[in-house]
Amino acid sequence: MDLSTRRGCEDLIRNIDKEGHPIDVLINNAGFGYEGDFISQNSERLGGMIGLNITTLTFLTKHFGGLMVKRRSGYILLISSVGGFTPCPRMAVYDASKAYVLLLGEALNHELGRHKVMVTTLCPGATRTEFFTVSGQKINALVRMTLMNPEAVAEAALTGLSKGKSLVVPGLMNKLTLWGLRILPRAVMAPVSARVMS
After folding, report:
1. Which domains does the chain possess?
2. pTM for the full model?
3. Among residues 142, 136, 126, which one has the least CA distance to residue 37?
4. What is the Cα–Cα distance from 165 to 128, expressed in whole angstroms?
5. Strand, helix or coil at 14?
6. Of 21, 46, 96, 149, which is least surrounded by CB within 10 A?
7. Which of 34, 75, 94, 100 is catalytic?
8. Sheet-wide strand order for 117-122
9. With 90 as the cut, is the pLDDT of residue 140 above it?
10. Gyration radius (Cα) of the chain, Å
11. E strand or H helix at 174, and its extent?
12. Contacts with 137 (C-beta within 8 Å, 6 or more apart), sequence order
């Protein structure tokens, strides 16, 4: 199924519901990045990224989260990114999509938590996956220093989810990055991000 489309999302929901097994844990991990100057990026690919990173994530969370609320039990893990905390030129739409996931997850942690449904948002940094190949983003020396193994990221995510944490940021370097962003004036975030990622 093409989960970047609304039809693919609806087909997945319908097929799972047909099975009749309750979903106790939903991990919204599907997503991809797309590097390049905003104006020159392919509109169809941008639409697919928005569809997968935002639309499908939202409707899967709504559907299965609603069933969990009725049972008063369940866990939902949403995958955002350290990039969701800051604007990054040449990754503008990707980072904006991850900011959406971050804000959605933090709100739902409060909203669904009252119904015994735990919602955790994971914000990893650079991870050794196919992300860079798919997005076209280059791995510079600074990014290479912060690369985490996917197993360590997954372990941190599931530990945080089991404890009902609202936010999980795996890795010391990622935590330090977010601490630095908190004290950085917003006006300089985009220029700094552009320099770090170049």
Report:
1. 29-197 (3.40.50.720)
2. 0.90
3. 136
4. 24
5. helix
6. 21
7. 94
8. 25-28, 74-79, 117-122, 167-168
9. no
10. 17
11. helix 172-183
12. 33, 35, 91, 131, 197
The more confident residue out of 133 and 75 is 75
Give the C-alpha separation, 28 to 30, whole Å: 6
**CB–CB of 117/134 below 8 Å?**
no
User: CB under 8 Å to 178, separation ≥6 — which residues?
Assistant: 82, 85, 123, 169
Annotated catalytic, 94?
yes
Q: If 0-12 CB within 10 Å is exposed, 13-18 middle and 19+ buried, where does residue 137 land?
A: buried
d(CA 27, CA 104): 15
Please report how many Cα atoms fall inside a 13 Å half-sphere around the Cα of residue 172, on the Cβ side: 1
Total Cβ atoms within 10 A of residue 45: 14
- State which amino acid sits at residue 111: E
Residue-level pLDDT at 178: 86
